[in-house]
Specification:
- This protein is an alpha/beta fold and 238 residues long.
- The chain has one domain (8-31, 47-233): Rossmann fold (3-Layer(aba) Sandwich), CATH 3.40.50.
- It is built from 8 helices and 7 strands; from the N terminus they run αααβαβαββαβααββ.
- It has helices at 8-21, 27-32, 47-54, 72-79, 91-103, 142-152, 177-182, 194-200; strands at 62-66, 83-88, 109-112, 125-131, 153-164, 205-211, 227-233.
- The longest helix is centred in the first third of the chain and has 14 residues, at 8-21.
- The N and C termini lie far apart (41 Å).
- Bound molecules: S-adenosylmethionine.
């Protein structure tokens, strides 16, 4: 990496690099042992996503999933009539997702990429879904993330995400954006409140923000009140 900043993109990459230097964490290693007791390792969709679709709050169409990991929500959406483009940077996570989709005879367009390097089709998606990726996005990338969501959504399209509750049981660092850079750490993922999510995604209409419902381990859906589930709508006109 050339240590000279010529552009806004160089600046973003420098900050990515500085944060990464201090971190041992790697998503490919994280997914390499599939038998670990990680709540979202089960192939069960998020309870909020199931609710949006079963209650017909969101109709089947074209969906983009950001940070799909082993694919449980992408597979659920595709099984319910969506055409799904599902993106993750982790080769290991996507290998697992593809095996699962094949086992279930389900078609998903899995894409291995950093979400910020995606060349996406503009105004093409009825739903952008993110379960647990946004809270790992460092603050300097947040504007790029918002632009990506807005660019991807059709007028009238929905954006839904689940993310750590501030200071929650599973994670959700209660630190300022500045503190991320002072300590050079995301502390395993940032925490959010309803107010903060509304502020960040103020260009979209808030439909609902609530805690996820706690689901029993034997349930066929995933849910924990340590995560917020938020649903937004793109109300811009064509
Ligand atoms: C907590 S996991 C959630 C996985 C999946 N959504 C689920 O709930 O089962 C977060 C995922 O986001 C992915 N991720 C984080 N930052 C990313 C980025 N900039 N581009 C692509 N994927 C990213 C990671 O590789 C990881 O698979």
């Amino acid at each position: 990496m050339k240590e000279t900043i010529h552009s806004y993109d160089d600046l973003l990459k420098m900050l990515d690099h500085l944060l990464k230097e201090e971190s041992e964490f790697n998503w490919d290693n994280f997914y390499s042992d599939r038998d670990r007791k990680v709540p979202f390792f089960e192939n069960h969709p998020d309870e909020n996503l199931v609710e949006y679709i079963e209650k017909k709050r969101i109709k089947a169409g074209k969906a983009l999933e950001l940070g799909c990991g082993p694919g449980r929500n992408a597979i659920y959406m595709a099984g319910n009539g969506f055409h799904v483009d599902a993106v993750d940077q982790s080769e290991e996570g996507l290998a697992w997702a593809k095996e699962r989709a094949t086992e279930h005879g389900i078609q998903v367009n899995f894409i291995q990429s950093n979400i910020f390097d995606l060349g996406i089709e503009e105004s093409a998606y009825d739903l952008v879904y993110d379960s647990g990726c946004f809270h790992h996005i460092p603050p300097h990338r947040r504007m790029g993330y918002i632009d990506l969501v807005k660019k991807a959504l059709k007028p009238g399209g929905f954006f839904a995400l689940t993310c750590f509750v501030l200071g929650g049981e599973l994670g959700g660092a209660a630190i300022t954006d500045f503190e991320v850079y002072r300590s050079r750490s995301m502390r395993g993922g940032l925490g959010f409140t309803e107010e903060k999510l509304k502020e960040i995604f103020h260009d979209l209409k808030t439909v609902e923000i609530r805690k996820m419902r706690d689901m029993e381990p034997e349930s066929s859906q995933f849910g924990t009140s340590a995560l917020l589930a938020a649903l937004f709508k793109n109300e811009t006109m064509e």
